[in-house]
Fold:
Amino acid sequence: MHTRIPTYWNRFCLYLIIWIALGIYYQFDLLAVYLPISMYQIIITAVLCNIVYKYWKVPPFEKGLSITVFILWGVGKALLSIFEVKYYNISSIYLMEIIFSNILNFCIFVIYLQKTKQEIRLAERLYKIVAENAADVIFYYKLKPKPSFKYVTPSIETMTGYSPKEFYQNPKFYLNLVPSDYFYSINEIFNGSPQIDKVTVFQLIHKNGSTFWGEFHSSILYENSEPIAVEGIIRDITKMKVAELQLLDSKQSRDLLLTYISHELKTPITSILGYVNALNDGTLNTTEEKKSALEIISSKALTLEHLINDLFQLSKLETNQFSFNFMHISALEISQDLINQHLLDIKTAGLKSIIEINKEQLSKINIIADPKRIDQVFSNIIFNAIKYTEENDKLIIKFYLDKNLKNYVISISDTGLGISQEDLPFIFDLFYKSQTATLRKENGSGLGLTISKEIIAAHGGEIWVKSNPGKGSTFTFSIPIYED
Structure:
C-alpha cells in the first residue's frame, strides 16, 4: 500500500493505449488488438501472485486461496478476451464477463480484508505495548452476563503484589485491595453504579500488608441503556497524597506554632511592660523595689532572648539551613570532653555523678559528628536533669556501644521527679511542657528537646526517653559509628 508503483508499469499502460489507438485508426482485427492486452494481464497476474507468495503474512490456506483466485481472474480474463474474438455472438459470454468482474471484486475485497487485519494486529500490538508497560493499572470488568475481570494489565502485580490471574479467577478479588471501610465504595465502582464519581481515591493494601493511596478513574459502558462493563485506570498517588497530607500538617503546625509563640512571648513581655510602667509612673519608690524590678525585667529579657534563639535554631533545622561542622572524631575523646565540660555544673548543683565510659569498646571507635552540636544536646539533657533532681541525688552518665556494635550511645539517668506516662509520648514535641514543669513553675521555652531531636536526626541517629514517675528519667541518644 505504501510502495511507489514502478515507472515501467506506467509505460506498459501507455504502450497499450497507443496500440489500441493504432488498432482503431488502422482497423486492426480484434485478435491483433486483444493479444497484447491479454499478455499484459497475464504478466500483472504473475506479479500479483508473486507479491502474495513472498510478502503476505497470512496462513498458508489463505495465501493459496488468494493466489488461486488471482490466477483464475487474470488468466481466465485474458483467455476470455481471445475467446470473444471468435464467439462474440454468444450471449452467455457476457455473463462470464460479469463473473470475472465479481472475481476481481473478490480479489479487491481480500486485499482490503488483509490490510484491515494487519491494521488491527498493529493496533493490538501497540495497545499491548502501551498497556503492559504502563505504570498505571488498566482493567476491563464485564458486568453481564456474569461479572468477571476480562483484562487486567501486568502492572497490577507491581502495584499490589497480586497477579492478574488472581483477579481473573475471582470476580470479587478487588475487595482484597481495600480496608473494610471502603468495601461499599469499591463495590459501587465494580457494580457499575451511575452515582459513583468518575475519580475516586482509596487507601489500598499491598499483598505484603503495607498501604498506599490509589486513584480510580472509571467509566461505565452501556448497551441498550443497561451497564454492561466497567473500564478504568488505577493510579498510585501515594507521593502526591503524602505531599498533600504533609502540606496540611505543615499548615496546622504553622498555625499551632504561631499560637505557641504568641503565648510564650506574651508572659515575659507583659511582665516587662508592667514593671517598666511601674518604674515610669513612680509606683515603685524605694531603691530596693526598683532594683528588684530591674532584676525581674533582666530575667524576662533573657527568657525572651533564649526563646528567640531557640526559634531561630529550630526554623533553620527544619528548613535544612542549620550549619553543621561535621568531623571525624574518636568516640572516647568526645565522651571525655563532654564529661570535662559539664562535671563542674553537676557538682555546683549539689548532685553526685556516676560516670561509666566503656573505654575498651570506645578506644578504637570513630564517629562523624559536630562536637559543638552534640555538646548542645548533651548540655540540654544535663540541665533538664539538674532542674528536676533534688540536691544530693545522683546522675548516672554512660558512654558505650549498642548490642549490634553499630551505634555510639550516650545515656543520662537521673533520680528526679520523672515524667508521667501521659507526657512521655509528647516530650520531644514542639513547645510541649510536662505536668512536672508546670507544677514546679519552671521557666523554659519547651524547644530544647525538639531541637535536640532535630540535631540527632541530622547525625543519622535516634533519641528516646524512659521514665518512672517519682523515680527518675533516662534520656538516651545514639550516633552511627564510622566504618570504612
Q: What stands out?
A: The mean pLDDT is 82. The CA atoms of residues 174 and 471 lie 53 Å apart. The two ends are 66 Å apart (CA to CA). The longest strand covers residues 211-223.
